[in-house]
């Protein structure tokens, strides 16, 4: 059982969203939700992560999660992303493809009356919902597009820990609600091959 967030914390936030969910009927939406839960569980398990320890906020066709304080951000960017791509490839091979966007950011947040509040969840959600990220997935042959914040790129990806490869990321800039955001897109494995 996840301990509720208390006070202002600085954590890694992971957000996912499924492509085309709102165009589905109720039965297909429920099937997509089940597949989404399965691939997130499989990716975390195969990356050695325990999703039961994540503070999770369900979003219908996605999830906003806060990882524990001791989570290795470089490991999550490298291995969770890699395992999520594999789980999605397995779904495609089984004839039940699922395409999604994955966003990550680290920053301050806390629990509020209606969910997470603070910079970290807002930035993660803005990155996830950015038009440039949606367009990247729509035109990609891959089933997963990763977008991370500038801060996460500078603090984590550039370290090259866990075989992260900064050259596999490209900058993206966009504006939402009069605020400028920037991040890095990755449409291939974020690690050296």
TrEMBL record:
Residues 12-128 form the Guanylate cyclase domain. InterPro entries: A/G_cyclase, Nucleotide_cyclase. SUPFAM superfamilies: Nucleotide cyclase. Gene3D superfamilies: Nucleotide cyclase (3.30.70.1230). It comes from the Bacteria. This is Guanylate cyclase domain-containing protein. It comes from Saccharothrix yanglingensis.
